[in-house]
Amino acid sequence: MDHPRLGRYPAARHVIAHLSDTHLLEGGAPLGGRADTVTNLDRAAEQLSRMVGGLDAILVSGDVADLGEEDAYRRVRATLEPVAEVTGAQLIWVMGNHDEREPFRRVLLGDESGDDGPVNQIIDVDGLRVVAVDSSVPGYHHGILEAETLDWLDAVLAEPAPNGTILALHHAPIATPLALMDVLELRRQDELAEVLRDRDVRAILGGHLHYPTQGTFAGVPVSVAGSLAYTMDLSAPARHLVGIDGGRSFSLVHCFDDAVVSSVVPVGTFGEITSFGEQFLAEVEALDEEGRLDRFSRKREWVTDG
């Protein structure tokens, strides 16, 4: 159902839920003996399930499993597949440095080929092309784009997509204030920048850093989703790398005709401070512009006890 526009911008053409770094272990064991990754993923899934009709894709940008265990992949898939079904969203999996290519392919992608090369994919989301590239290095945690991946990406981007392209990879090409994370950064960024030049890539989605952040790379907006496992504390003392059991989030990426907007969604159950329901929104929509300003923009006096 079409609703009246209440402001300058129309509704987004595509909406992507961007999750990252779930880090599940076999049997649902707590990560580091402490972080309850299963409950965190369940909470995110519950929140996403409320968005029936409002999601086009659910993209998990790597480190799906902490040790690449088959059972961990099955658990994440079993949690998110019903969410994709109820919301009508496509489910997109991206390789991370903690993932292992063979079980990732087999359990998440249904690929029994045994191929041990980079897991690169093209997914069409109603005219929006999502290109997932594998930045993992077998046996290591830093990232690299292998020559075959760069050549493949260059060929894919040679033809524009109807609604543009979203590039997804685990090791996002973006600066971080965490010095040790520089060791684990993406290699061959200059070559990637050349491939992206004058192409239709509208945004780059990544993970790896365990905190939500944004920037630009080669003139393209970059959005990094927070981790569902644990969060890096950027307020820790300088030259320290501290992961905390809190602050978890995912992102919502809204793709408009001429812009891409990424928003952070806290994961958890919190008390409401204020709430306006669907009935109130319908009342505002039924008014003309002057009426809307009077109903929702005009300042009112707050009445307090005492």
From TrEMBL:
User: What top-level branch of life does the organism fall under?
Assistant: Bacteria
Instruction: Tell me where in this chain the Calcineurin-like phosphoesterase domain is found.
Output: 16-212
Q: What is the protein name stated in its UniProt record?
A: Phosphodiesterase
Question: What keyword terms does UniProt attach to this protein?
Answer: Hydrolase, Iron, Metal-binding
Tell me the GO molecular function terms.
Answer: cyclic-nucleotide phosphodiesterase activity; metal ion binding
One family from Pfam that matches here is Metallophos
What does the similarity note say? Belongs to the cyclic nucleotide phosphodiesterase class-III family.
What InterPro entries does the record tag this protein with? Calcineurin-like_PHP, CNP_phosphodiesterase-III, GpdQ/CpdA-like, Metallo-depent_PP-like
